[in-house]
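Quick one - inputs below.
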Amino acid sequence: EIVLTQSPATVSSSPGERATLSCRASQNIYNYLAWYQQRPGQAPRLLIYDASNRATGISARFSGSGSGTDFTLTISSLQPEDFAVYYCQQRSKWPITFGPGTRLDFK
Amino acid sequence: EVHLVESGGGLVQPGRSLRLSCAASGFTFDDYAMHWVRQRPGKGLEWVSGIGWNSGSIGYADSVKGRFTISREMKSLYLQMNSLRVEDTGLYYCAKDIGAGAVALDSWGQGTLVAVSS
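Output:
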């Protein structure tokens, strides 16, 4: 199965700052990558699909890039509600796999 | 508005069975693939199983293959879980595929809790 590695495990930032989260795949997954946000006690929410397409209703502060094995989620000008856990997910091959997550904390 | 409501979770002994259900509304159910994703307590997301819009394609995580069976009928998604293990404990989410050939999960239920313990 394709293994996704996310870095860093935790990132500490402040509101208004820019955050950059990384996801690396164990093999080429083309652009078949999605990003999710999960706030405490809530179900995950789709942010980005196919590496760079924002899901419906997602703020333009969220952007995704990358292809092949290296991907990035960028959150510009962090808002208080952005402090959550972020997961990447690949759909290049079944089984579908998720990364272990990056926690975005207040500095 | 898409609405997914899971049910069927509970406390069960190892080796026993449970059947999870997910009631879908607010979209044309027959047009979309559907998935089950679980989250063990305090852990990350784990895809469990997915089923195509017409049940023509079905997949399972290696950890549940041969024990779990996914199915769909009318506006409901199901997960039959047999030979349950302690490590199957977690919150099970039903999720809708975004469609159009992309496997991304654009709508999620609130989950149903499965606890496997003696």
